[in-house]
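chain below, 139 aa
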Amino acid sequence: MSVGPVQYVLIAFPGSRFTGEIVPALVDLVEHATIRVIDIVFMKKDVTGAVEVFEYDALEETAAFAHLPGEAGGVLGDDDIARAAADLEPGSSAVLIVWEDTWATELAVAIRDAGGVILAGERIPRDAVEAALESVTSV
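prediction:
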């Protein structure tokens, strides 16, 4: 089985204002074979710092995730969840998603077949990209 690059994203909702509004965008990415969700975990950190992990169907706000195509689960362990929860501010909720960038599978296979090895990669923060582009276009 060929696998594209896999990444995780921790999306926090300060004040636990999670509404599930991101679900249509995720569904669109999955249906267009842009990503494949491998695992997904929901969590809340109360004001005392206690963390609760729950399934999508435990809250009305997360029930919309039932519409996400495919099967997901079992990849993230307790240590992964604890590391993610450590970054979460008290009084917030979050969703931790692991997905495969299926759009890049063909390139990943070509790199491996050519004997190439990706040594590093990182997402560049939106603010940094916007500032860099703004400085280039204002010259």
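The chain has one domain: 6-106. The helical segments are 23-31, 78-86, 105-113, 126-137.
thats it, cya
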